[in-house]
Write a structure and sequence with these properties.
Structural class of chain A: alpha/beta
Shape of chain A: elongated
CATH architecture of chain B: 3-Layer(aba) Sandwich
CATH architecture of the largest domain in chain A: 3-Layer(aba) Sandwich
Oligomer: heterodimer
Helix content of chain A: 25-40%
Radius of gyration of chain A: 22 Å
Shape of chain B: globular
Order of helices and strands of chain B: EHEHEHEH
Number of strands of chain A: 9
Helix content of chain B: 40-55%
Largest interface: A-B, 15 and 18 residues
Radius of gyration of chain B: 14 Å
Largest sheet of chain B: 4 strands, parallel
C-alpha cells in the first residue's frame, strides 16, 4: 500500500486559516488501511478543526466526505455539487488525491492533509516499513525475494557496504542491513552462488529517473 | 464577567470504575455539578473521536476513569484508552489548548473516595485553566 502520515495540525490550520467552509476529504484506499486518511481520520481531523474554530472564535463550517478512492476519476466525479459548497478542500489521500481533485475541479482550493511516505506494508500493528521503490523493473527474485533498491540505504545491488555491522545499517541501529538478510537467506537456501552470477546492468529508464511515468493498457482503453 | 462554570465529560468503565462509583455513592460522596458521567463497557472502546467530540461541543475538560493496568477486566482496555488520551493531548497542544484538559485515571474497584476525588481534581484543574475560547 501507499503509506502516509498526517501533516501536523498546526501546519494544516495555517493552510486553511483564511477559509470558512472547509471540506475534509478522505479515501477508502491505502490511507484507510494505514489509518491516516479514511472515514475515521476524516472525523478526527474535522473535529480538531472545529475545536480550533471554537478556540479562535471562528465561524467555521467543516464538512466530511470519504470517497471510495481518490485515484479514479469516476469516484472524484462524486464530488460534483459538493466541492463548490466549500472554500477549501483538505484531501487526506496520498499525493494522488489532491491532484485528481485539483485537476477535475480547477477552481477549487485543494490542500494536502497528509505527507505521502512510501510504498510498503504493516510489519506490526501501527508500524509500517518500506518495501518498494517503484523502479519499474522488479528484480527481487535475484535477491531471495528481497529488494536492495528499496531496503538498502545506498540501494546497492552488488553486496553490502562497509557500514554493515551485526546485521544493522550504519545509518541507524534500528535499520536492518538488507544485504545481511539477503546473504543469510541465500546461504540457508543453498543459493549463495547465484549472487555472484553476472547480471546485466539494470536499466533505470523505467524508474523515476526517466521522468514522469504513465502506463497504457490497450485492451482496457475505451 | 460571569463566573466560569466548567463543563467536564467523564467516561468511566463498567467494571472497576463503576464499582468505585458505587462505593462512592454508598459513602454519600458526590461529583461536582458540571461533571457529566458516561459509562462505557470498557475504556478500550473509547475512540479518539469520542474524546474530541466533547471539546468540539462545548466541554472544557474530559477524563477517562478505568481499571488499573494489572486488573483490567479486558486485559488492555485502559492502556488503549491511555494511548488515545495521549493522542488527544498532542492534538490539543497543536491547537494551543492546554493538554491538561484531558486525563486518564486508573483506580481499583474499592476506591470510592478516589472516584469522587478525581472529579473534584479535574474540576479544580479546568477551573484554573479557564474556558477554551478565552471568553
Amino acid at each position: 500500500m501507499i503509506v502516509a502520515e498526517q501533516k501536523p495540525i498546526r501546519e494544516l490550520v495555517e493552510m486553511v486559516k483564511d477559509f470558512q467552509k472547509i471540506l475534509v476529504l478522505g479515501c477508502k484506499g491505502c490511507v484507510t488501511v494505514c489509518n491516516v486518511g479514511g472515514a475515521k481520520e476524516v472525523g478526527v481531523l474535522a473535529s480538531a478543526l472545529r475545536i480550533w474554530g471554537r478556540k479562535t472564535g471562528r465561524d467555521l463550517q467543516v464538512g466530511e466526505h470519504t470517497l471510495e478512492r481518490q485515484c479514479d476519476p469516476e469516484y472524484i466525479e462524486e464530488l460534483r455539487g459538493i466541492v463548490g459548497e466549500y472554500d477549501a478542500v483538505i484531501s487526506i489521500a496520498c499525493g494522488v488525491g489532491p491532484q485528481f481533485v485539483s485537476e477535475r475541479y480547477p477552481t477549487a482550493r485543494v490542500f494536502p492533509g497528509v505527507n505521502t511516505k512510501f510504498m510498503g506494508g504493516a510489519v506490526a500493528h501501527g508500524i509500517w516499513s518500506e518495501r518498494c521503490a517503484g523502479c519499474g523493473q522488479c528484480v527481487v527474485h535475484y535477491f531471495g525475494g528481497l529488494c536492495p533498491i528499496a531496503r538498502c540505504s545506498k540501494s546497492l545491488m552488488n553486496g553490502p557496504c562497509g557500514g554493515s555491522a551485526d546485521g544493522r545499517c550504519e545509518i541507524h541501529k534500528e535499520v536492518e542491513c538488507i544485504w545481511d538478510t539477503i546473504v543469510r537467506k541465500m546461504t540457508e537456501q543453498g543459493r549463495l552462488n547465484e549472487l555472484i552470477e553476472f547480471k546485466p546492468p539494470k536499466s533505470w529508464t523505467t524508474a523515476r529517473d526517466g521522468g514522469p511515468r504513465s502506463m497504457i493498457r490497450e485492451e482496457l482503453v475505451k | 464577567m460571569s463566573e466560569f462554570k466548567p463543563r467536564i465529560l467523564a467516561f468511566y468503565c463498567a467494571n472497576c470504575a463503576s464499582s468505585a462509583a458505587n462505593v462512592s455513592e454508598s459513602m454519600s460522596l458526590g461529583v461536582p455539578a458540571g461533571v457529566k458521567m458516561v459509562q462505557v463497557p470498557c475504556t478500550g472502546r473509547i475512540e479518539t473521536l469520542h474524546l474530541l467530540k466533547p471539546f468540539e461541543e462545548g466541554a472544557d475538560g474530559v477524563y477517562v476513569a478505568g481499571c488499573q493496568e494489572d486488573s483490567c477486566r479486558y486485559m488492555s482496555g485502559i492502556l488503549k484508552a491511555e494511548k488515545r488520551v495521549a493522542q488527544v493531548k498532542r492534538i490539543l497542544e497543536e491547537l494551543d489548548i492546554e493538554p491538561g484538559r484531558i486525563e486518564t485515571f486508573k483506580l481499583s474497584a474499592g476506591k470510592g473516595f478516589r472516584f469522587a476525588e478525581i472529579a473534584s481534581e479535574m474540576m479544580k484543574r479546568v477551573q484554573e485553566l479557564g474556558p477554551i475560547s478565552g471568553g
